[in-house]
C-alpha cells in the first residue's frame, strides 16, 4: 500500500491549475502563430510569383517595383504579427517565474 501512495501525484493546487491553463493557452497561441507564419511565407512567395508574372514592362527595375507593390502589404502583415506577438508576450509576462 505504501508504494501505491508514493506513486500517486498530489492534486494540483488551484494556483497551479490556473498556471497550467495559462501555459496551455500560451502554447496554443504559439502554435497558431507558427501556423500563421508559415501561411505568411507561402503568401509572400505566391505574391512575388504573381508580381513577376504580371510585370508589364520587362525592362523595369524589379527591386524598385517590388518594393512599391509589397510595401503596404508588408506593413500590414508586420503590424498584425506585431500585435499578436505583443499579446503573447504580455500573457507570458503575467506567468510567475
UniProtKB/TrEMBL annotation:
Listed Basic and acidic residues bias regions: 27-39
Source organism of this protein record: Brassica cretica (Mustard)
Superkingdom of origin: Eukaryota
Chain residue ranges for the region called Disordered: 1-20, 27-72
Classification lineage: Eukaryota, Viridiplantae, Streptophyta, Embryophyta, Tracheophyta
Protein name, entry field: Uncharacterized protein
Extent of Low complexity compositional bias: 40-51
Amino acid at each position: 500500500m505504501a508504494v501505491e501512495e508514493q506513486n500517486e501525484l498530489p492534486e494540483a493546487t488551484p494556483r497551479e491549475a490556473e498556471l497550467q491553463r495559462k501555459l496551455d493557452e500560451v502554447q496554443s497561441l504559439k502554435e497558431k502563430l507558427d501556423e500563421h507564419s508559415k501561411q505568411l511565407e507561402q503568401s509572400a512567395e505566391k505574391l512575388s510569383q504573381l508580381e513577376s508574372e504580371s510585370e508589364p514592362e520587362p525592362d523595369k527595375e524589379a527591386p524598385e517595383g517590388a518594393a512599391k507593390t509589397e510595401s503596404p502589404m508588408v506593413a500590414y502583415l508586420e503590424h498584425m504579427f506585431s500585435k499578436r506577438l505583443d499579446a503573447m508576450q504580455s500573457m507570458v509576462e503575467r506567468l510567475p517565474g
